[in-house]
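Methods — Computational structure assignment.
A single polypeptide chain was analysed. Its primary sequence is given first, followed by the predicted tertiary structure written as structure tokens.
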Amino acid sequence: MALPRDDAFPQEAEALGFGFHSPDGREYWCRDACYALHAGTAEKLAAAARELEGMIEATAAEVVRRGDYTAFGFSDRLAALVEQSHRAGEPSLYGRFDFRLDPSGQVKMFEFNAETPAALFEAAVVQLAWFERHQGLPAGAEQWNAIDDALVARWPALGLPRLIHFAAERDREDEIAQVAYLMATARAAGHEAAFLPVDDISWHAEGRMVTPEGVPLDACFKLYPWDWLDAEEGGPLLPLGQTRWIEPARRMLHASKAMLAELWRHFPGHPLLLPASLDRAAIDGPAIGKPALGLEGQGMTIEDEAAAGASTEMPEELPPSPTIWQQWAPLPAHQAGTQSVYPVMGIWSVGGEPCGLGIREGDGLVTTLEDRFVPHILL
């Protein structure tokens, strides 16, 4: 839905902490359009996310029972941490489903970002502020956005100590904004919250993860993947620490692209799933290859004549992991001016309950961190 260009919003958004709306001169926040969906579409997306949460939990339990993590790309140490976390039933805070929604209303899951999902701050805070101040929206418009209330209500259920540390990379403005927002929700729930650059996490001789000042990390939210931590110099110390991590290690099972193949094996032909396998030959027709431990569109390879071998880069510093092949189902395109764009529906789930929508829109076939965030309304 086209809207008059909102040139005042970036400055107002900066007051919220959204200073990265135009990184490197590129427009990350869409200022002249929004997506208008029927309320029934939001209900359908929520029902799909709710059903998939249950399917993923059941499949993860079967993977742990079997004890074979070959397709997941875990080191032996990570596999042990995952099993320990799963058997302890460590609770989760949040996650984000990426869905394909076609014009007929059919929903398919691309993947589940269950460990370090990005663009939470944009979805929960910035687009709500946009919605509340925008004067050009149709009468009666609403927004599917109960993310903030869900997060505040979820923190007490995690059973964490009063002080929670929050860690992210010190040079990532977008990650720091997301962590700052999560700190605010934790404080609203009655916790104390302190920020810590992830590379400042230290090891104390008494067998504890600590801050540089020696304060124990009894509980720590980290916007940093488990496999990256495992590859760090201090990786061997992870099993020895006593920190409660959010997200817990068991969420690596849910977040790995290998879960797509496991789901298809356990629920073959399910209408919310696309065929997926570790074996490319098992997927009929065009397919997309996804690194099991890839993030945000990294390292994708599309095998389809129409896509002309499109692919995305994998950062050199990240370790390789097995490739999972998923049936290629390109995002439905629509015209934005003279250009075709491809929206992916990001469904936010807190404590297993879907609570909001964030839409990313790209010019290419694979959605990455470079693509725009477009706000939405419900009619």
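Note: The chain has nine helices and 18 strands.
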